[in-house]
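Entry: CHCH domain-containing protein
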Amino acid sequence: MTSSRDQSTPYPSAARIADSPCFPQYTASLKCLEEFKSDKSKCQEYFDIYKECKKKEVMMHNILEGSSIGAESESFPVLMKALLDKVILVS
């Protein structure tokens, strides 16, 4: 007998990372680590950019979740990405 935990991905958040509007910043951070053989000091700028993007993503998620759209709406991810793109470009 397998539990529902056994059937899910080992890292549930990893299944959603590609859907994040911050995925490009995330992958840039990983590429930097690969390029510099995991020397984190050489990649700090990439980490900072990703961290800032995630802050904005959470902020936009909270705004949209409190709106009439709701997180369960099919348009929620698309709208959040569009808004986040605007927020990132403006700042």
